[in-house]
Amino acid sequence: LHRKNEVYFKHLWHPRYPQKNDKYLSVQPRLYNAQRINQRHFLNQKELKITRAPQQTHWGNCYSPSDKKKLENPDIELRLPNIKAVVTHFLREELKRYKGKVVSILFYEDPYYKSMKYKFKKLLGKQSQPYCSIKAVNDEILKTIVFDYRHCNYEFQVNENLKEISFFIDLKAPQNNA
Question: What are phi and psi of 16, to 5 degrees?
Fold first, then answer.
């Protein structure tokens, strides 16, 4: 191991967020168990003796204000409820189909999710469309970004009411795994 005196990269300071709050949705994007996911990534790279991961080829690319403007004029606009199958299928399968496009997705809490009818059906074990919490939607979107679209130009925002998540992504931008 050789010690280098020059700066290789800088870390952007950010406030420390207690892990105990990872389980709760907030307007600050937070992924449950992110620290352990990062640790696993680091240890895997160390085990493989890799100094630059293959999926890190676009590391350090910066986006400009004009790139942010692109997100304001999407080619595709979608509204998706927090139905578990809809969210999972969209993030794992459908999103890939929009390569070359700017996509705007509003994930929202379906009113049925909080209805008495849905709660009773769940309580009684009756068959019903499985829903997921907006926190679960948040975590799925963030995992999708981290693993598949981290090099794309994107914007992610949890609405103040904690019932909607706006996700804009430019799939024209450099990407590796998508």
Answer: -80, 130
